[in-house]
Input
Amino acid sequence: MLAGMVTYLCPQDGTRADTTTLTWCCPVCRGPWDLDYEPVGPLSLNSLTTRVNSLWRYEEALPLSSPATSLGEGRTPLVPLTGTVSAKLDFLMPTLSFKDRGAVMLAELARRLSPGRVVADSSGNAGTAVAAYCARAGLPCTVYVPEGTSPKKTEQIRAHGARLEIVPGGREATALAARTAADAPGTFYASHVFNPYFLHGTKTYVYEMWEELGGRLPDAIAVPVGNGTLLLGAALAITELHAQGLIDERPALIAVQAEAVSPLAAAFRAGADGLLDDPGTDGAATPTLAEGIAIPRPPRARQILAAVRESGGTFLTVTESRIREAQLDLAARGLYVETTGVACWAAVGDWVDRSVVVPLCGAGLKTGLAD
Output
């Protein structure tokens, strides 16, 4: 059964919908849903010692329980890189990216709703994760990706049995194609942007960090931001842990974007609550090695900007040359990470004034070395 007392809630206009429906967005404003949900909690470190070795060990904090689709995702290592910077190795997941945290939640929800088909859109990693977990759940799946997506990622999507739709143009055109398909009756839109169950999966990234550090969090948490799913999940976890009295201080959220595609950083620096004027591009005109965060119009922009400001954090941007250098630097340290996944290390690698954790989000085998 689905967790009790959980409903979709539009953060813009207050519209609600039952989570047992296939309504993928607010019918009034067409914006993404939040979940009206409170964790059962509280957790305790002592209670975790004998639990399943996956993200499902935090059952009090999750809106779904007793999954049939798990591949053992979560519980990735936290390793030091410098005296103040540590890395969480989220590329050590079943599909080699952090997106498994949210994809398992979407696939588990879809399995319980039994739709006619599942559709997803992605620049690669979310699509491979949804394809894998839909295969695990026995659900037919179609994944929309932009032309130019890494062949290694499209090969992985096909290997999991999903139908692949390659869309001309960039990330925005791909999202539009998937959303059009999602409006068809009997379709579950496994959107890592619009469906909030994904965020409640990614928040386990911070719960694991809290457990690994003995019931505390670092001074700052750096995350790469395109659609903001890891950042918003982190913000959820921090709020929940603080509300339950499990942390005294909230860490600052350091949002990292590629300088080539950085609409949120520009809005933050301008003091805006939302995105600035339309940049007039679908993302195709401004290529970046960090393809996974090359999102010109993130639907949750206002939430992302608010979360960073409320945490006392900031936005940082990285150049293409710095991304190349950071990938090689991590490889020299024994960690082969894809170009999007090195963005945070590229941004904060020389910090010395406070503790910070960076995610290594995807394996280097997904894209290869930067040219």
DSSP finds eleven helices and 13 strands in the chain.
